[in-house]
Amino acid sequence: MNPEHARILRELLRTQEVAALGTLHEGRPYVSMVPFAMLPRGKGFVIHVSRLASHTGDMLLSPGVSLLVVASPTPDVSADPIVV
Question: pTM of the entire structure?
Fold first, then answer.
Protein backbone atom coordinates (compact mmCIF):
# COMPACT_ATOMS: atom_id res chain seq x y z
CA MET A 1 0.00 0.00 0.00
CA ASN A 2 1.43 3.37 -0.93
CA PRO A 3 1.66 6.13 1.73
CA GLU A 4 -1.26 8.14 0.31
CA HIS A 5 -3.59 5.12 0.38
CA ALA A 6 -2.46 4.35 3.93
CA ARG A 7 -3.23 7.94 4.98
CA ILE A 8 -6.70 7.77 3.41
CA LEU A 9 -7.41 4.45 5.14
CA ARG A 10 -6.28 5.77 8.54
CA GLU A 11 -8.50 8.83 8.10
CA LEU A 12 -11.49 6.66 7.16
CA LEU A 13 -11.03 4.45 10.22
CA ARG A 14 -10.50 7.50 12.46
CA THR A 15 -13.64 9.33 11.31
CA GLN A 16 -16.21 6.53 11.06
CA GLU A 17 -17.89 4.86 14.03
CA VAL A 18 -19.97 2.03 12.56
CA ALA A 19 -19.04 -0.91 10.35
CA ALA A 20 -20.82 -3.84 8.73
CA LEU A 21 -19.65 -7.11 10.31
CA GLY A 22 -20.00 -10.24 8.19
CA THR A 23 -20.01 -13.65 9.89
CA LEU A 24 -21.20 -17.16 9.10
CA HIS A 25 -24.42 -17.97 10.94
CA GLU A 26 -25.36 -21.63 10.73
CA GLY A 27 -23.31 -21.81 7.52
CA ARG A 28 -24.99 -18.82 5.89
CA PRO A 29 -23.80 -15.22 5.49
CA TYR A 30 -24.93 -12.89 8.26
CA VAL A 31 -24.26 -9.15 8.32
CA SER A 32 -24.90 -6.76 11.17
CA MET A 33 -23.88 -3.22 12.05
CA VAL A 34 -21.40 -2.80 14.89
CA PRO A 35 -19.72 0.22 16.46
CA PHE A 36 -15.93 0.20 16.38
CA ALA A 37 -13.06 2.33 17.63
CA MET A 38 -9.39 2.72 16.79
CA LEU A 39 -6.85 1.69 19.41
CA PRO A 40 -4.33 4.30 20.59
CA ARG A 41 -1.69 5.26 18.01
CA GLY A 42 -3.67 3.47 15.29
CA LYS A 43 -2.43 0.03 16.37
CA GLY A 44 -5.61 -1.79 15.38
CA PHE A 45 -9.21 -1.39 16.39
CA VAL A 46 -11.92 -2.99 18.50
CA ILE A 47 -15.50 -3.80 17.66
CA HIS A 48 -18.21 -3.56 20.28
CA VAL A 49 -20.47 -6.61 20.41
CA SER A 50 -22.75 -8.12 23.01
CA ARG A 51 -22.21 -11.67 24.25
CA LEU A 52 -25.93 -12.18 23.56
CA ALA A 53 -25.73 -11.21 19.87
CA SER A 54 -25.79 -13.81 17.11
CA HIS A 55 -22.64 -12.40 15.51
CA THR A 56 -20.68 -12.91 18.74
CA GLY A 57 -21.54 -16.60 18.84
CA ASP A 58 -20.70 -16.83 15.15
CA MET A 59 -17.24 -15.30 15.74
CA LEU A 60 -16.53 -17.71 18.58
CA LEU A 61 -17.36 -20.68 16.33
CA SER A 62 -15.65 -19.32 13.21
CA PRO A 63 -13.30 -16.36 13.76
CA GLY A 64 -12.91 -15.59 10.04
CA VAL A 65 -15.07 -12.49 9.58
CA SER A 66 -15.27 -9.50 7.29
CA LEU A 67 -15.61 -5.88 8.28
CA LEU A 68 -16.77 -3.15 5.92
CA VAL A 69 -16.16 0.50 6.77
CA VAL A 70 -17.39 3.12 4.32
CA ALA A 71 -17.20 6.89 4.25
CA SER A 72 -20.40 8.84 4.65
CA PRO A 73 -21.70 9.87 1.25
CA THR A 74 -21.05 13.46 0.33
CA PRO A 75 -23.73 15.27 -1.64
CA ASP A 76 -22.92 16.03 -5.25
CA VAL A 77 -23.09 19.82 -5.18
CA SER A 78 -22.69 19.97 -8.95
CA ALA A 79 -25.95 18.09 -9.53
CA ASP A 80 -29.04 20.13 -10.34
CA PRO A 81 -31.85 19.53 -7.85
CA ILE A 82 -35.00 17.98 -9.25
CA VAL A 83 -38.14 19.77 -8.18
CA VAL A 84 -41.35 17.78 -8.43
Answer: 0.75
Contact 25, 60 (CB under 8 A): no
Whole-Å CA distances, 37 to 18, 56, 59, 80: 9, 17, 18, 37
In the Cβ-directed half-sphere of 76, how many Cα atoms lie within 13 Å? 5
**Ranges assigned E (strand) in 3-44:** 18-25, 28-38
Give the Å distances, CA to CA, from 32 to 8, 19, 26, 49, 50.
25, 8, 15, 10, 12
Domains assigned to the chain = 3-68 (2.30.110.10)
Could you tell me which of 67, 65, 72, 76 has the C-alpha nearest to residue 11? 72
The amino acid at residue 19 is A
Low-confidence residues in the chain, pLDDT < 50? none
